[in-house]
Amino acid sequence: MEQAQNRANIGFIGAIVAVATIGGFMFGYDSGVINGTQDGLEAAFDLSELGTGLNVGAILIGCAAGAFSAGRLADVIGRRKVMMLSAVLFLVSALLAGFAGSSAVFIVARIVGGLGVGAASVLSPAYISEVTPAAIRGRLSSIQQIMIITGLTGAFVANWALAQLAGGSTAEFWYGFPAWRWMFWMQAIPAIVYFLALLTIPESPRFLVSKGRDGEAEAVLIKLLGHDEGRRKVAEIRASLSDDHRPRLSDLVSKATGKVRPIVYVGIGLAVFQQLVGINVVFYYGAVLWQSVGFSEGDALLINIGSGTLSILACLATVLLIDRIGRKPLLLVGSAGMAVTLATVAFAFSNAVTGAGGAVSLPGNWGVIALVAANLYVIFFNLSWGPVMWVMLGEMFPNQIRGSALAFAGLAQWLANFVISVSFPWAAANIGLVVTYGFYATAAFVSYFFVARAVHETRGRELEEMEG
User: pTM of the entire structure?
Assistant: First the structure.
């Protein structure tokens, strides 16, 4: 590890990783900004429970399309150009969502933002994996999740501050517009920063080699890894790619068996299980959830900020551990911890009581137990499945199929996210929080055995060593 760090230009690598992970920040901010705006949306557009779910979950339709398209498009025009396109989509979405005069326009705006989120979600970790040495790849790729949570927390802080200044999310604020609209417009600032920062970083050397631009790739790799290592790495990358054609979707099918490569199914499984445990219910509906059991709007938004802070601390622990103990042990610990804490949340909600006017509350210490268990769940997720899933998707696939495999894994991840997020308001109202959280706990339990059986360790392995 020390040898690799000595050869590498750590300052340059750190700078381009910092730029790439702004995409993670935008991913988190654009996803989390909806948390705290539901009252404004419902009042402005007269939404039903299903309508609220569709407006909240609209971004995920775009995310699925963006993740699938970005993986393939990145094999055609490059990783950096697709990330720049995602920055433009973030900006357009922020402006349009804030000005939306109807639910239909708002849904279109969020789908546009989702295209950017989906692209950033798969390309930022892939790009980081392709420009970092194997010995430190895990910790640098884990920064992506820290930035996602920082973006979520940033959205929570901005929403809370705007609601406090205006006197509520639906109260009028600057220029007569309600605070919830300003919550969306605030996204324009990091979107512009992201676009400008992307102009300063190089294209992925793996992409450049796949396009026959070996000279440009060698120049980038020499700057990243040093002269001798950079020249050697170009030859290794070239050897890992097919001689007769550039990367394409059909590469996902093994020539030997005529079937889809098993590694593709493992990637899809990781992507789907990360969502079936229900993490985005906390991120998207946290404010509504805590208000439903007796907390005020201000307190619920503060709880969101606290959860975001704990998430960042958990991700920092992952940065320290992932290249020391590996990816698979962290996933196993996370699955076990989430299963226990989600089951505790479900049991706590089984003690809820309904008071006058249909108000729901958790009597005695059950509110505290639910809150503590929910935050422990967030810690376990961000210590494991949050960052590690993205790290593995960015590094586990062979060079020849990385873009195509990411397209399908990203599509699966966001479709699962859509199903879980859109179904939550209906499920909470019709089958109850006990059954809903019980399902998430069951998914976490099953994910333990999936990891134990199907996932192979990638710690310390070069991308050119990955097999499908």
Answer: 0.74
